[in-house]
Design a protein that fits this description.
This protein is mainly β and about 160 residues long. It has one domain: Immunoglobulin-like, CATH 2.60.40.1890. Helix content is about 10%, strand content about 50%. It has 1 helix and 11 strands, in the order αβββββββββββ. Strands 1, 2, 3, 4, 5, 6, 7, 8, 9, 10 and 11 form an 11-stranded mixed β-sheet that branches. A hairpin with a 2-residue loop joins strand 1 and strand 2. The longest helix is centred in the first third of the chain and has 18 residues.
Length: about 160
């Protein structure tokens, strides 16, 4: 009788595990069909910084990142960087388009979130809270990990 009860319990646990959606990594965030993967920034000694991440749109409709905010900065803007006549230029954009079923990477040298007038230096190992607003999916708070100054990408974490 005890073995039968144990088998039923094991079967129920296995079925529950199959029915659950896969969990996002600890440093990923989600709002609607949008997953925000590994938000990060670099340590700073100046009052300006940038935040990076990958935005995955699992939905069937396009969406757009239309706003970012942080209590740790006087202003936050969506930016892109491009080469113009041989000169690298940064410019503000009104939104960052997210195609359905695709990933959009915010990275050094491309789209990024500009943090202007930082109220404190960003120190490696800390995090900074950002609020991201998407046109359709809504608003979500994320924590961006502060990597070392000059880091090309976030450190890989073992899960």
């Amino acid at each position: 009788m005890l073995a039968s009860a144990f088998r039923r319990l094991a079967l129920a646990a296995a079925l529950a595990a199959i029915a659950l959606p896969p969990l996002a990594a600890a440093d990923d965030f989600k709002v609607g069909p949008i997953t925000i993967e590994r938000p990060w920034t670099r340590a700073t000694t100046v009052q300006t910084g940038a935040a990076y991440m990958t935005l995955k749109n699992a939905g069937k409709e396009a969406d757009r990142l239309v706003k970012a905010a942080s209590l740790d900065a006087a202003a936050v803007e969506l930016h892109t960087m491009a080469i113009d006549n041989g000169v690298m230029r940064m410019r503000e954009v009104k939104a960052i388009d997210l195609k359905p079923g695709a990933a959009t990477e915010l990275k050094p040298g491309g789209f990024h979130i500009m943090l202007i007038g930082l109220k404190r230096p960003l120190r490696e190992g800390e995090s900074i809270k950002l609020t991201l607003t998407f046109e359709k999916a809504g608003t979500v708070d994320v924590d961006a990990t502060v990597e070392k100054a000059g880091a090309p990408a976030p450190k890989k974490h073992a899960h």
